[in-house]
Amino acid sequence: MELSTSLGLVLPELILSLSGLVMLLFAAWGGDRLSSSISVACCVALGAAFALVAPSVCAGASGPGTMAFFGQFSADAYAGMAKLMIYAASGAALIVAPRYFDRLGAMRAEYPVLILFAALGMSIMVSASDLLTLYIGLELNSLSSYVLASFLRSNEKSAEAGLKYFVLGALASGILLFGMSLTYGFTGGTSFAAIQAAASAGEMSTGMLFGLIFVLAGLAFKISAVPFHMWTPDVYEGAPTPVTMFFASAPKVAAVVLLGRVAVEAFGSQADAWRQVVIFAALASIVVGALGAIGQKNLKRLLAYSSINNVGFLLVGLAAATQAGLAAMLVYLAIYVVMTIGSFTALLLLRDAEGNQLETFADIAGLSTTRPALAWCLLLIMFSLAGIPPLMGFWGKLVVFWAAVEANLLALAVLGMAASVIGAFYYLKFVKVMFFDEPIDRVKGEADTANWVLLAICAVLISPVGYLLTGWLVSVANTAAGSLPLAG
């Protein structure tokens, strides 16, 4: 009975696993000519997994009934909400890829399969209730990501991005594994429940504290939080743009949600031990991300620093170590995913007459005159990322800072708000270049319907119209955060 119950709880992951294996066989037998069909099939698989997870999120699934395989896997609402974002972001990466790679003659059947396996790894990550499950999911995602980063094999930047990501990712995995071994050695178990029981028994030992710090350091690399952010600009710039969009959205969701689960579920009784680390990483990421972006001329590198900056705001919610803080973090994540998909989709529409991708500020000078619809969509997205009301990005920051204030972290909220002003500078630079510089009319590429539809959806969701969904989003986020055993 235990096996059948567990298999029912992991049905979304089983669908992704079986679909990935079947599509891998089709890719091996049919070759690249089946790449479009395989992409559609992978989108269907992600849609099916999305449909299976959604009811558990709306119902607020929690408690022993969500535990599978003797407590190693948790199919609760907290993990479910993260999975919905992961599947949606993965689907977006599949939608925008064919046109981009076909133009370069580099579309391969393996691309959608790698996205599917990466989504599977992330799905396991966010449901992990044991250090071993955590590591399996993380490595499955990482191995797929290394290949995706270097997908354009003949491109030096892509090959360099893949190599850097692999070397630094292996280092981070080693740090994480060492932290896990220390944690196991000083708590006597690998399950989050066993770790929590040991941590609650008395004062945290030095060895357990070192294990916690190493685990946090390994996960901080995955979310590109300062000081483990050095790989992000190079990998984001060198990787193909659809892959960069994927890296900036889905894996970020998985790693942040996993970090929240480890901190609150495994070490919730020792919040004071890890809160200081999280507060430092939050403020440092906000400041370094903002300052690093100011001098960037390449748009993808700028968005990489923007990603680091946004991680800082996410960590502000985690630092609260309360249900309200986790709910605010989930709300911000949902808004962040929409803004990220929208920004990179807009970049994919920046092409010259020959179809080459344009990636610098010089290329978008006077864009409002030559491509007004694209310029206005970019304006909405950049204003939202800057946190300017009445756009949804402002509301995301507001709920995170409010959670910090309620948790008596007023100084953190004030410093975070002050540092966020720095970030407004480079977001406004987009507007200045597009609307006030002399037009150069380089963007002449043909319109891509799929990209435009995706961009329009993102623009509507982050506009004031998106506020119609805020009540529902807050309700779902609160329910999801409350499903964690120690979220309160």
From TrEMBL:
Single GO MF annotation: NADH dehydrogenase (ubiquinone) activity
Lineage of the organism: Bacteria, Pseudomonadati, Pseudomonadota, Alphaproteobacteria, Sphingomonadales
GO cellular component terms, A-Z: endomembrane system; plasma membrane
EC assignment: 7.1.1.-
Subunit structure: NDH-1 is composed of 14 different subunits. Subunits NuoA, H, J, K, L, M, N constitute the membrane sector of the complex.
UniProt KW keywords: Cell membrane, Membrane, NAD, Oxidoreductase, Quinone, Translocase, Transmembrane, Transmembrane helix, Transport, Ubiquinone
The protein's name in its UniProt record: NADH-quinone oxidoreductase subunit N
Source organism (scientific name): Aurantiacibacter xanthus
Functional note: NDH-1 shuttles electrons from NADH, via FMN and iron-sulfur (Fe-S) centers, to quinones in the respiratory chain. The immediate electron acceptor for the enzyme in this species is believed to be ubiquinone. Couples the redox reaction to proton translocation (for every two electrons transferred, four hydrogen ions are translocated across the cytoplasmic membrane), and thus conserves the redox energy in a proton gradient.
